Amino acid sequence: MPVWTAPVCLLLTAIGIGIATYLTIAHYDTHVSLVCAAKGAIDCQAVTTSPQSKVFGIPVAPLGLAYFVAMIPLNLPVAWRSADPRIKIGRLLYGLAGIGFVCYLVYAEAVIIKKICLWCTGVHITTLVLFVVTVFASALAIPTDVDVVDDDDDEGDDSDG
Amino acid sequence: MADGRDEKGRTSTKYAAKKAASERIAAQRAAQQRAERKRNLLMAGGGVLAVVVVIGGIVFAGLSSKKSTSAGHPVVPASATVTNAITAAAPLTSATPTLSTVTGPPKALTGAALTSTSGKPEVLYVGADYCPYCGVTRWPLAIALSRFGTLSNLQTTYSAANDTAGPNTPTLDFRNATYKSDYIGFVGIEYEDGAQKVIGKLTTEQNTLFNNVGGGAFPFIDFGGKWMQSGASYATATLAGLTPEAVAGQLTDTSSKVGSSIQASADVFTASICDMTGGKPTNVCTSAGVVAATAALASLTK
């Protein structure tokens, strides 16, 4: 695993938490409005107040916050150093689930609402980059217990007979 | 011996063979790791590429379907029903304004005030006809302005039918409006029409305010450099399905959702303007609703 993996993932997670916290506060506190242009296709308020801003009655903003908070333990250096396949696969599946949700939200913005929320896009990009880093770092982490098939394994011992 | 040499220091054949075998295994293992790493990276790259293609496809689909934009509703002179209702609503202020319905309340500013040609402090409005947030915000602004002067040449229209934030929101239009007041000046700019075509023009000063202070968001209202309103002042759903005349019919009915929402916003805007005029005229700035709104604004600056 590259040494930069955990710090980069934690930094991306922190960025995600920051933006998701801002969106969550703006969602629950009507006195806090998002700093966001509302011109043409860009309109944060249209997106954050749309019916698609809730999934099964749960606002998307706190869901995103919870997603990134849960990412913290998965991206700690100790988790990245762990040889436990459950952590590695769990992290990949969790990242994949996040990407799946991002795909739905991008679909909702681009196709249903036809408005783009810049802050939400920030979260989407953060999730995507985090997923890309996770996938490549996982790919580079070669397991140390590679099972080598050695046909000549016994020859060394017996050759001198 | 442990290093594979006999008593005379010769390397034993057995040790050499063992060493060669382990080196062969190590080389084989390294090659296998390289192959596995390459395979993993290819799989990772393929997976990421697939994700990017899916997201790109969704965005492309959205952009393609966006070509069918609304042509925009016609903008027509306001009927007597509308203008009379605004005039009738202006003297009213709710004794207990429902400030809870006011979203995105004005923010205090410390910048220099724009001044009208007559030297009076100026209220600058920048909006767009297609924009539903502008649609709901024009009503209370018109009422608030009418408390300080006379607003004429109003027009009516609807926000864009394809704007999901509040399709077909009934509203006023300020593009041809004129305003006379002893206290303030008013500039109302509809920057884009219902089809998002640019029809307004901002001076350098207005453009700087709109973008740097208002973040380039419609609607933007600068209350003489004292307060700023950015975005809708109440929920767009409040006016859903109504005509301008139907909204006008409820302006003086503060027990209705429409009337109370618009009056509450009008009181907040009035309080912002009173801050510009130094509390003049007294009968407006000391009315119950405006006093309550002034207190609410003051609490925002603490």
List low-pLDDT spans of chain B.
none
Shape of chain B: elongated
**Span between termini of chain B:** 85 Å
What is the gyration radius of chain B calculated from CA atoms?
Answer: 33 Å
Number of strands of chain A: 4
Adjacency order of strands in the biggest sheet of chain A: 1-2
How widely separated are the two ends of chain A?
Answer: 43 Å
Largest interface: A-B, 46 and 54 residues
Mean pLDDT of chain B: 86
Q: What is the CA-based Rg of chain A, rounded?
A: 22 Å
Mean pLDDT of chain A: 83
Structural class of chain A: mainly alpha
Beta percentage of chain A is under 5%
Biggest sheet details of chain A: 2 strands, antiparallel
Order of helices and strands of chain B: HEHEEHEEEEEHEEHHHH
Number of domains of chain B: 2
Number of helices of chain A: 7
Low-confidence stretches of chain A: 145-161
Helix content of chain A: 55-70%
Largest sheet of chain B: 5 strands, mixed
Task: Name the overall outline of chain A.
Answer: elongated
Description:
The complex is a heterodimer of chains A (161) and B (302). Chain A has helices at 5-28, 44-48, 60-74, 77-81, 85-113, 118-140, 155-158; strands spanning 38-39, 42-43, 54-55, 58-59. Chain A is mainly alpha-helical and 161 residues long. Chain A has a single domain (5-143), classed as VKOR domain (de novo design (two linked rop proteins), Up-down Bundle). Chain B has 302 residues and is of the alpha+beta class. Chain B has two domains: 1-68; 76-300, no CATH class. Chain B has helices at 13-65, 80-89, 132-146, 204-213, 244-250, 257-277, 282-285, 288-300; strands spanning 76-77, 107-108, 122-128, 149-152, 155-158, 170-173, 178-181, 185-192, 220-223, 227-230. In chain B, a hairpin with a 3-residue loop joins strand 9 and strand 10 (227-230). The longest helix of chain B is centred in the N-terminal third of the chain and has 53 residues, at 13-65. The termini of chain B are far apart. The model of chain B has no long low-confidence stretch (mean pLDDT 86).
